[in-house]
Amino acid sequence: xxxxxxxxxxxxxxxxxxxxxxxxxxxxxxxxxxxxxxxxxxxxxxxxxxxxxxxxxxxxxxxxxxxxxxxxxxxxxxxxxxxxxxxxxxxxxxxxxxxxxxxxxxxxxxxxxxxxxxxxxxxxxxxxxxxxxxxxxxxxxxxxxxxxxxxxxxxxxxxxxxxxxxxxxxxxxxxxxxxxxxxxxxxxxxxxxxxxxxxxxxxxxxxxxx
Length: 210
Fold this sequence. Notes:
The protein has helices spanning 8-16, 23-27, 31-40, 48-56, 64-78, 81-89, 100-151, 158-202. By secondary structure, it is mostly helical. The protein has two domains: 3-78, no CATH class; 113-202. Helix 3 (31-40) runs parallel beside helix 5 (64-78) and helix 7 (100-151) runs antiparallel to helix 8.
């Protein structure tokens, strides 16, 4: 619908999104297009205050009614159930930027997306815990081997060998402690993975991409 408004300059503005308005932008502003751009990128309608501030020094005042018309159309594009899910799944926050007419649909998807986001975070944490434990076990194993070789090396006195022996015993105890928690970590990881996969299945009606 709004493609007829988009010339080359306007497309560049749409893609940049975050660029501040300069004198040329203010003097040639299409406030309906700018409102549409802000709305379609999920910017709150109050963003017009920033445009007003940027254009004030050039003697330009935004057309609020025209901006709101474009913003409403852009918000309709942004505030969909599918996009709400996408925003929630990315861990983004909702800043009440959707008009009342679209908010219910957006929040329905957003809530589902937040749920899957939480499940993925738990899975990531359980995965990291398990991987860190295996890495620590592996590091201790190498340390034990290295110190065992050092303990029988030439040139060490009795006290030095005792110190190394105690260090080996300490590493072995640490390794045993890590092995003892592995079953629980595996169990938590498997539960987190199952919960995440179930979540993906439950929300498979959305467009899921990894």
